[in-house]
User: Fold this.
Amino acid sequence: MIRLSFSLMAGAVVLTACAPSPETALNATCNAVMADPQVRDSVVRAGLTVETYCDCVTTVLLALPDNESARAVESFELIETRMADHEGDAEAAFEAIRDAARADGATPEMVATYRNLDELGDQLDLILDEIEEAGGTCPA
Assistant:
């Protein structure tokens, strides 16, 4: 029995060690969303690389209080997932979620999802503005 428990604990440690860190996972999500040329364009126009922007976004979002950080990360991951349904178009993915939240019969969860995405968009715009104001340096 002890041997089985030890084996299960060792397996859990191995699986945990193989999972990407929250920083790595969020940075990968940000880079995936930045693959949309329209989204990437605003970052490039600001004179930034996607890598610089995503590094800063990762730092800022993970530094938020736990519940805010979790909502932001979940929303970012949702956009990344939904982009696949819309040929890599982040705006189309966002609009589909918005339309579902505004439709008759929209559930409270659908409305909350849309509001969280809208909040994430505001956060991302603010981060971009702050980086620009700081001369290309992450404000965090």
Notes: The radius of gyration is 18 Å. The chain is about 80% helix and 0% strand. The mean pLDDT is 89.
